[in-house]
Amino acid sequence: GLGRGRTKNEREGGTMAATQMARFKSREYLDLVKSIGECKSKIEEDAIMKNEVVYLKRRLADPKLDKSKLREYLLRLLYVELLGHDAIFGHIHAVKLCSDASLTNKKVAYLTTCLFLSEESELLILLMNTMKSDLHSDNYLVVCASLDTVCQLATEDAVPLILPSIKELLTHGKDIVRKKATMALLRFFLKAPHLVPDYGAMCRKVLCDHDPSVMGAALCALHEAVKRDAASFKNLVKSLLHVLTQIVDRRLPKTYDNHRAPAPFLQIKILKMLALLGQGDKAASSQMHPVLIACLKSANSGTGIGNALVYECVRTAIAIHPDAQLLTASAAVVAHFLNSSHAGVAATAANNLKYVALDALGGIVQIDPSYGERHQLAVIDCLEDPDETLKKKTLELLYRMTTTENVEIVVDKMLTFLEQTSDEHIRADVATRVSELAERYAPDNHWFIDTMNRVFELAGDLVRPELADDLMQLIAEGTGDSREADTELRRSAVESYIDLLGSGKPKMPKLLLAIVAWVLGEYGTLCLSPTEVMDTLAGIGRRQDCEDSVRAFVLTALCKVCCAQGGTGGPTAEADAFVSKMLASRNLDLQQRAVEFRTMMACPADLRQAAMPADASCEEVESDSLAALDAFVSQALANGAAPYIGIDLRDDSALSSSLSQPQGDALRYDNYEQPETASGAQRQGQMGGEMFTSSMGGIQPLESLISGPGQGEGGHDQPPPVQDPSKPQLNISGPRKWGRPAPQPQAPPAAPEPVRYAEEPVLVQADPQPYAEQPVASEEFADPAEMSEKQRLAA
């Protein structure tokens, strides 16, 4: 909106730049633009852009490229970027050209840089010093180009570097520079408000500028600050009202008018700030009322921008402390918008005006509901409009306008709309709103039950399950006025559900069927005999649209009907067949309920009547005394069951000790034992002995061969191990295939002295006793090293 009021300097600068740009266009550039415009498909456009990318890469890589050509190539590269192709290879050239001394080159470079780069680009660090130096240029056009880039690409890191220069430019001699400096200040505030501590003071100072464009920029900057902290700017109300009055009185230049509306965008910005500053402030609102009425009258011009001004005035009147005269004027304008279809307005524009009117009237109704009653018929007529968005907005307004006087009309219209619409989201929303209105403003319980039945019937499974619980609770609790009134309410509910079942509808929502089953089970005998009630319930369970959750309600209702007959009644043939079928159901819940039904029918009459009392769904179950279970507890104790121990009497230490001592195959909760540390020779002997003993029988471990006969661990005498003759043993006798031939066996010599070597382990002749078949002995002793090798291999 600020761009419409451009100053003379702006227009002259734009004309000069356009003339210079037209002078430097080449034939290739014009052919490129023409070819893009003549493309018949995206494929042709992509082919042109691919060729252009290849050409530009080659040309931009030339170190002797002329600056004028570089400017043109950057503009052509801009087309590549805008049409969705990668032009990152040329971004650095745009950044470099920003430091050129030529004004035309600088403006093109800044323009392409703003369009190429983002706030996260690493090339911005190369641009900071250039922008800062250009902000101090003597040419205000260079300063404006730099400020445009600051407004687009400035980050939080750039605020401390550039903010001092921006503060100086707020008092520049050119109005366009002051306006752009204010916009750059707003950019800094949005990015890092903590780095601009005196932001409000600077904006207040700029607001007093004599140039309307600078004042408009200051309004935009102040609006952001007011949105964050309105209390700090309460003293601005008088200044804003003074500015608004001058605008309404047409004291600004004609260049700021838009369709005969004086500076409409400045008015809208001021109205938004007044709405924030007047919330909850009666004194400030009282100052706004006469100015808002004058603004409302002058804005009602019948044009689009005039309607926007009227809507903003109404929103401001709703937000601040209410005034009867202002609300009346606002409601009159809203009524004009609601009847816009009768004023010869186009269909689309009329729907837009109606939507705005419904939104504004919703705010007025919240302050004073009487205004909604005056325009109730016009609002209801909007439900017949084919526009779905308008219908949804109308439903929201009707929900706000509903009272005890018009609830029947509003709910009937909403139910009619629910029956006609097919959007599931809208249907669910309408069903929820109708149920809330019926529960809040119902004239009587009969109307409430009929309305809820229709909601369940029309909306189906889109209704929240909590609504079904609320309806059943209302029927069970009754009105509370008298017993006769409650009985009449329940009888009316039973009759309505019997008529609903008799209507012959092939499909009904599961929630509605569940409610019908529950009501018939609780109060069906008020209108029917127990036999008829059970047959009706069995018929519900046999329906094709009956799900397992509904059949669970049916089984419970059948049980209640049977138990309600003084505890002496039994199921009918149809009910018994249904229960028998549920006994074989795949649903475990249905099986359990069917088994409970059979078990209950086998119990005595008094127990059945006590377990299923009549009309006791809302009564609290007394759980303090469980005397009825004493007989079962005594029988269990007699059979050896452990007595119950209270929590306060339990000994946790005994429980933990019993867990720590495993009994039989019980789980053990103690830690694993720590492994014992053994030497290398012991570990090797243990591993070898265990392996051969487990796989081949009674083979003596290697450590026994090393330590000598009768020597165990630690060198102590130990008896030779006794071998089991039933187990297989290794036979090392027979022909040898390696080494010297084995000599004939003879009696072993008397304990020879062992020969010790430095590098070999101490070996002695093994005890022949473990080898039961034929011991190995030799008359001539072989070399100890050779003996050691053979014995090692044998082991």
Could you name the key traits of this structure?
795 residues; disordered N terminus; 37 helices; two-stranded antiparallel sheet
Structural summary, described in words:
The structure is a single chain. The protein has 37 helices and two strands. A hairpin with a 2-residue loop joins β1 (257-258) and β2 (261-262). It has helices at residues 8-23, 27-37, 42-60, 67-82, 91-97, 103-116, 128-135, 140-153, 159-169, 175-191, 199-207, 212-228, 237-248, 264-277, 282-299, 304-319, 324-338, 347-367, 370-374, 376-381, 388-401, 407-420, 424-441, 445-459, 465-477, 483-502, 510-523, 530-541, 548-563, 573-583, 588-601, 605-611, 630-638, 652-660, 680-696, 702-707, 784-794; strands at residues 257-258, 261-262. Strands 1-2 form a two-stranded antiparallel sheet. It is an all-alpha fold. It is extended. The termini are far apart.
Computed over alpha carbons, the radius of gyration is 49 Å
Tally of DSSP helical segments = 37
Helix-strand category: mainly alpha
What profile does the largest beta sheet have? Answer: 2 strands, antiparallel
Give the helix level as a range of percent: 55-70%
Percent in strands: under 5%
Query: What distance separates the N and C termini?
Result: 102 Å
Choose one word for the global shape: extended
Structure summary, number of beta strands = 2
Short description:
The chain is mostly helical.
Topology (elements, then pairings):
Elements lengths: L7 H16 L3 H11 L4 H19 L6 H16 L8 H7 L5 H14 L11 H8 L4 H14 L5 H11 L5 H17 L7 H9 L4 H17 L8 H12 L8 E2 L2 E2 L1 H14 L4 H18 L4 H16 L4 H15 L8 H21 L2 H5 L1 H6 L6 H14 L5 H14 L3 H18 L3 H15 L5 H13 L5 H20 L7 H14 L6 H12 L6 H16 L9 H11 L4 H14 L3 H7 L18 H9 L13 H9 L19 H17 L5 H6 L76 H11 L1
Antiparallel strand pairs: 1-2
Helix pairs in contact: 3-4, 4-6, 5-6, 6-8, 7-8, 7-9, 8-10, 9-10, 10-12, 11-12, 12-14, 13-14, 13-15, 14-16, 15-16, 15-17, 16-17, 16-18, 17-18, 18-21, 22-23, 22-24, 23-24, 24-26, 25-27, 26-27, 27-28, 27-29, 28-29, 28-30, 29-31, 30-31
